[in-house]
Design a protein that fits this description.
This protein is mainly alpha-helical. The chain has four helices and no strands. The chain is 89% helix and 0% strand. The longest helix is centred in the N-terminal third of the chain and has 37 residues.
Length: 124
């Protein structure tokens, strides 16, 4: 199902942005290059949520609170750097208007993936 949604995302990109194959390949390269960095940030966010739950459930101390806040800032900083890096690379391939449309399409794609996962979890 996720692969089908991803294929649909690429078709929408090609159709809505009027991309040719070489441009699509270049965009795919940028997206692929960012996957590992996004995965690492996702894992850090999950670990931070678990630590935050532990803090609230166990009446954590000030040191733990500082650690959580520090990690939150670090993650946000890395996310901002990743987004800026990706945007810079995409602007070498597409116009600013195309980059904005790409970002909107990707947000829609990510929403569909989240709904798919929630449906799977809710349907259990």
């Amino acid at each position: 199902m996720q692969a089908a949604i991803h294929a649909q995302f690429e078709r929408e990109m090609v159709e809505e942005l009027g991309l040719d194959q070489p441009t699509m390949e270049a965009i795919r390269g940028v997206m692929t290059a960012m996957v590992e960095r996004r995965r690492e940030l996702y894992q850090r966010r999950r670990a931070l949520r678990a630590l935050s739950r532990e803090f609230h459930e166990s009446d954590g101390d000030e040191a733990m609170a500082r650690r959580i806040l520090s990690e939150t800032r670090a993650i946000r900083s890395h996310e901002a750097l990743l987004e800026a890096d990706e945007e810079s690379q995409l602007l070498q391939i597409m116009s600013p208007a195309e980059v904005l449309r790409f970002q909107a399409l990707r947000d829609d794609f990510n929403d569909r993936i989240r709904r798919m996962h929630r449906g799977r979890i809710d349907g259990i």
